[in-house]
Design brief:
Blueprint: E1 15-20, H1 24-40, E2 48-53, H2 58-69, E3 74-82, H3 88-106, E4 111-118, H4 121-127, H5 135-158
Parallel strand pairs: 1-2, 1-3, 3-4
């Protein structure tokens, strides 16, 4: 049996982090967590691209452009969509989730969903480092692991093996 899995070595990986300015009280903490996680695991500053966008819906356009560039080993999408009094929360939360899933199905680059969808600001802050850990840090760990898994899958299954059957 062959088991293939990623690891947490970030040396040499190129990671993009897409983060909205909307709900900056939360998203800035998510970004801090993501950058901390990436750097602690060896991703160098010059290999991290932070893309600031107005809000979470703009991540869809930004993801497409970053994927078209083809230079990143993984992309992290951060954000904080907090329920309000209107249906807007549902639209944004659903569309960004669907878009990330769709890009993951159609792209060779792993995209990590680090968008908080909460009922209250307090819940969002708790998940951005207050009580429930930092989901930005967790997203960074997933990005590193998936970028390495991508490389291992390519190496193990796409590159020709010298002792493979002809």
């Amino acid at each position: 049996m062959k088991v293939v899995q990623g690891d947490y070595r970030g040396e040499g990986l190129k990671i993009a982090v897409v983060v909205p300015r909307f709900n900056d009280l939360v998203t800035s903490k998510l970004l801090e967590g993501a950058l901390d996680g990436l750097k602690r695991h060896g991703v160098s500053d010059e290999n991290i691209t932070v893309v600031r966008i107005p809000g979470s819906m703009e991540a869809i356009y930004t993801l497409k452009r970053l994927l078209d560039l083809g230079v990143h080993d993984a992309i992290i999408v951060l954000g904080a969509v907090i329920r309000g009094e209107t249906y807007h929360f549902n639209v944004v939360a659903n569309e960004i989730g669907k878009a990330v899933a769709q890009f993951n199905m159609n792209s060779d680059v792993p995209i990590v969903f680090g968008v908080l969808t909460t009922d209250t600001l307090e819940q969002a802050l708790n998940r951005a480092g207050a009580k429930s850990g930092n989901k930005g840090f967790e997203a960074a760990m997933v990005a590193i692991e998936m970028a390495n898994l991508r490389k291992k899958l390519r190496r193990d299954f796409l590159e020709p093996h010298s002792n493979s059957r002809q």
